[in-house]
Design brief:
By secondary structure, the protein is mostly helical. Among the domains are: 10-96 and 163-213, no CATH class; 265-328 and 370-433, no CATH class. Helix content is 46%, strand content 5%. Bound molecules: calcium ion.
């Protein structure tokens, strides 16, 4: 189940992420999960699509106040894009998601040093160039410029990525054949509202393969809720106006509870005596408690002064014991509201540190190779742990914090050293592996 505020459905998010690793980000998706259909079947599917779109869906849209003219201009000539990922053909089983993904095969790819350096350097230049704007943004929204710039970098390579897919075709295809129809039907209606309000010309409705719009890559419903007109021309233009783009990102974070002046997080050394399954946003403790357990910041630097006595601080081990460990504040979890992935939020925090000059190189503890694991492998481990009464946060094939610590707890209960990450070895140890 997707929490209501989740921006991209996880599979799409992961795909967007995987794409964003390549330069330039958001390049056209390789149709890795594309449906293979014959010409005849394609024609039949298109006919079905049109019947649905111009029948029940059109009635619903008009009932919800979308003018006929807008509906027909936006969707009149749209064809389904059958090569989109994550579609389910009528009468067939969902495609088993066997592809490897950055999230769990190798977090190291996410933190490619070369691309981080390029992003950081460009970010420092943009920080100087937009210094006044960024100060105004921080005053108004409380979010520091380096964080806003890092999200801009990740989402659209500081606005350089070409985002040119017809958002209506993508949203309509997902709304009709996707695995998350309900979510995409809402997004399609939100996209229609954007145009109906007169704020966004139809030709501007270009998006990524996930249907996310503009330089901040917002889903249409997020645009309606969080986009901001910061250059004062009366339009929220997240395609062309840098002030609007950056303000919309800052507002998204502010509205999800960003705390002014509180540092997002730092890398730490985690003694072996501290079990990795203490991680997660529901196991916060004051910094003093973590320190009593022997956790120190890397390089023996002091912890952020903004972490006061009563601030809840959280442990984060995105690769369990196979990579660096972090202590993070609530603001880390606010970044996850932008894109719900620990690696995403960590990338943003780390890049922000490098843009601001707080950190100059890679993490002290490297990401270790954990062996090849597919999404289906992770799902199998999750099912086995669920059978044993562990909360893995749902069987979705992604090793989120709930899955990681369920692994750690299971290991500890069996007197093994908790490593909190799915590996081929762990897979073999669990029955059914
Ligand atoms: Ca504007």
């Amino acid at each position: 189940m997707i929490p209501p505020r989740r921006r991209h459905p996880p599979l799409l998010a992961a795909l967007v992420m995987a794409l964003a690793l390549a330069a330039p980000p958001l390049a056209p998706a390789p149709p890795a999960l594309a449906l293979k259909v014959s010409k005849e079947r394609e024609a039949r599917l298109e006919a079905d699509f049109r019947r649905w779109l111009h029948g029940p869906f059109r009635r619903r849209a008009l009932k919800e106040g979308i003018p006929e003219k807008v509906f027909d201009a936006a969707l009149g000539h749209v064809k389904p894009i059958l090569k989109l990922p994550d579609l389910v053909l009528p009468g067939t089983a969902p495609i088993p998601p066997r592809q490897r993904q950055a999230e769990f095969s190798s977090p190291a790819h996410y933190f490619d040093e070369r691309s981080l350096r390029i992003h950081a350097e460009r970010g420092r230049r943009l920080h100087r160039q937009h210094a006044r704007l960024l100060r105004r943004l921080e005053r108004r929204f409380g979010v520091p410029g380096d964080i806003v710039l890092a999200i801009w970098a990740r989402e659209s390579n500081y606005g350089r990525a070409s985002i040119r897919h017809d958002a209506f075709a993508i949203l309509a295809t997902q709304a009709w054949l996707g695995r998350r129809k309900k979510l995409f039907r809402r997004e399609l209606l939100a996209a229609l509202r954007m145009v109906a309000s007169g704020e966004v010309p139809l030709r501007r409705m270009k998006g990524s393969w996930a249907g996310a719009l503009g330089q901040p890559q917002m889903m249409p419903s997020d645009y309606l809720r969080y986009a901001v007109d910061f250059d004062g021309d009366g339009r929220r233009d997240i395609w062309r106006s840098v002030p609007d783009v950056l303000a919309s990102i800052a507002n998204h974070l502010a509205r999800h509870g960003w705390r002014r002046g509180v540092h997002w997080g730092v890398e730490v050394r985690l003694p072996e005596s501290v079990p990795c399954h203490l991680e997660g946003p529901d196991q916060g403790r004051p910094l003093a408690e973590w320190r009593r357990m022997g956790i120190v910041r890397v390089g023996h630097q002091p912890f952020p002064k903004s972490w006061r006595k009563r601030t809840r601080i959280f442990l984060l081990t995105p690769a369990g014991r196979y990579g660096p460990a972090f202590l993070v504040s609530r603001n880390f979890h606010v970044v996850k509201e932008y894109n719900t992935s620990d690696l995403y939020a960590l990338f943003i925090g780390h890049l922000a540190d490098r843009i601001a000059g707080r950190v100059w190189g890679p993490f002290e503890t490297p990401w270790r190779d954990t062996g090849p694991m597919t999404r289906a492998d992770v799902a199998r481990i999750q099912r086995e742990l669920e059978k044993r009464g562990h909360d893995v946060g749902g069987v979705d094939g992604l090793p989120g914090f709930r899955t990681r610590r369920a692994i750690g707890r299971w290991q500890q209960a069996r007197k093994m050293f908790p490593t909190c990450f799915p590996t081929p070895r762990l897979k073999r140890r669990l029955p059914g592996g």
